[in-house]
Write a structure and sequence with these properties.
Keywords: Signal. This is DUF4148 domain-containing protein. The structure is a single chain. By secondary structure, the protein is mainly alpha-helical. It is built from 2 helices and no strands. The protein has one domain. The chain is about 95% helix and about 0% strand. It is rod-shaped and about 100 Å long.
């Protein structure tokens, strides 16, 4: 009877750990990580374009000052 109880406890613990492992958490985490990378790349591109526009604008103002 004791061995049957021990087997039941082991089976219950094994089943619960397997159920938790197949919950899809890894897929969700990978999806979130991918979205974060895409978002960061888009943000960096936008910041670079913003900086380039500011430099071009300051060069245009400097050019207008020297011509005028």
């Amino acid at each position: 009877m004791k061995s049957m109880k021990a087997l039941f406890v082991i089976a219950a613990l094994t089943a619960s750990s397997l159920a938790m492992a197949t919950g899809g958490g890894d897929k969700t985490f990978n999806r979130m990580e991918s979205a974060r990378k895409v978002s960061m790349e888009a943000f960096q591109v936008a910041q670079k374009q913003k900086a380039e526009a500011a430099v071009a604008q300051s060069k245009a103002k400097a050019s207008n000052r020297s011509n005028g």
